[in-house]
Specification:
Blueprint lengths: L1 H25 L6 E15 L12 E15 L3 E16 L13 E13 L4 E12 L17 E13 L4 E14 L10 E13 L4 E14 L6 E13 L3 E14 L7 E13 L12 E11 L9 E14 L3 E14 L7 E16 L2 E14 L6 E13 L2 E2 L2
Antiparallel strand pairs: 1-2, 1-18, 1-19, 2-3, 3-4, 4-5, 5-6, 6-7, 7-8, 8-9, 9-10, 10-11, 11-12, 12-13, 13-14, 14-15, 15-16, 16-17, 17-18
């Protein structure tokens, strides 16, 4: 546990150290522009099944307040973005048989990020990014997370990267990523600390101004502090993107192989693929105003990385998102998601189907002050006993952010 805390701190210091080197090499603080944005958000949320249990459901109300500040510094060749948010969550509801009194889960968490990019030469760009989060929300554990417990945990991702442009047609990039998941308490099963060291190489080729193809190879090691087996993984993918007036269409496919240190576990291998259509109002690109409209449709097939208890599944996800801004004041948006999980090393051949529907209406009542109402429904149907649930939620949120400084 202490080792992971040290690594997490080293990641943040590494990001700031890289910033110092970039600043020294590129005169980052010469004639720069700085934008400071204090922000605060407060919300009230009601969940009909807060702990996402099949039986003994508990209705819980959540009060949240999240103050923070963001800073952006720009020069001709360097950009530095720093943002930090403190999150306080308090829960109210009757005690349940499974998890007890919701107030036992009151906590202070937060998130922080540092991102630095610098164009060292006309062709060479280097950067570093670090993201730190402390939360009880299980959805940040893995991109395809199916966790339902509310133990507090911390994640950190430290990613230095480099990109070299050989000309208008071809470029190559490389990155290293160290990711950590550290559990701070244990209110639920299946919580093991996890570390991941990943390397990736990308080659890009621009066929023309609107079409590009890129080949990516990734190699990583996933390690657990508990009983789950460590593993090595390889993945290669070929992708192509085409930009139209409104939409950018991206499609890709690849092959993955995952071998485990425990010789009793079979090697996992198969295909991964995605088709994504992303659309937005490009007439506003480069402006401070939001896009008037956006839409995103994604069909993805992949495998989860964090699999405590050797619990890995092939996830097939269909997600639709969209929104529209009326008269610069009223924004209406929604999301629909379906995800199927086919467990790969489960003796009962478990499969899950997850459905999520949500909507949001936000209105700028005064300059930079936004009042929003969100609501939705979440349902999981599982072959495994005790793993099905449904939850209805509704939230009222007040958001404020004000930027000042040299634009």
């Amino acid at each position: 546990m202490e080792r992971r805390k040290i690594y997490r701190v080293m990641g943040l210091f590494g990001a700031f150290g890289a910033f110092g080197l970039l600043a020294a090499n590129t005169n980052a603080f010469a004639a720069g522009r700085i934008i400071i944005t204090p922000h605060i958000e407060t919300s009230y949320e009601y969940n009909s099944n807060f702990f996402r249990t099949e039986k003994n459901t508990a209705s819980v109300s959540t009060w949240n307040i999240s103050p923070g500040v963001g800073v952006i510094y720009k020069t001709a060749k360097t950009k530095i973005s720093v943002d930090g948010t403190l999150e306080r969550n308090q829960y109210y509801g009757s005690s349940g048989r499974t998890y007890g009194n919701p107030s036992n889960y009151n906590y202070t968490g937060g998130k922080a990020s540092v991102e630095i990019t610098s164009q060292v030469t006309n062709r060479l760009t280097v950067g570093v990014k670090d993201d730190l989060r402390s939360t009880r929300d299980p959805e940040y554990i893995d991109e395809y997370s199916q966790q339902t417990g509310f133990a507090k945990y911390t994640t950190n991702s430290f990613t230095p990267n480099i990109y070299y442009d050989f000309g208008n047609k071809f470029g190559i990039g490389a990155r290293y990523q160290n990711s950590l998941i550290t559990w701070n308490d244990s209110y639920g099963p299946g919580e093991e600390d996890y570390s991941e060291n990943r390397g990736a190489i990308d080659a890009f080729y621009n066929l023309n101004r609107s079409t590009a193809i890129y080949l990516e190879y990734q190699l990583w090691k996933g390690s657990y502090d508990g009983q789950s087996s460590d593993y090595w993984a390889n993945q290669v993918t070929l992708n192509a993107s085409k930009q139209f007036n409104y939409f950018t269409l991206t499609a890709g496919a690849g092959y993955y192989s995952r071998s485990f240190d425990n010789s009793g576990l079979k090697t996992l291998d198969g295909v991964t693929w995605k088709i994504v259509a992303d659309g937005r109002d490009r007439s506003r690109e480069g402006e401070e105003r939001k896009s008037r409209s956006f839409v995103n449709a994604a069909l993805i097939h992949d495998v989860n990385n964090y699999g405590s208890g050797n619990s890995y599944y092939a996830a097939t996800r269909l997600q639709l998102k969209g929104g529209y801004l009326f008269r610069e004041k009223l924004e209406v948006s929604g999301m629909a998601l379906y995800q199927n999980e086919d467990y790969q090393m489960n003796p009962s051949n478990r499969t899950d189907d997850l459905y999520v529907l949500s909507g949001r209406i936000a209105y700028e009542v005064r300059d930079k002050l936004v009042l929003a109402v969100e609501g939705g429904y979440r349902d999981r149907s599982s072959d495994a006993a005790g793993q099905s649930y449904n939850d209805t939620f509704i939230m009222a949120k007040l958001e404020y952010a004000y930027s000042f400084g040299r634009q």
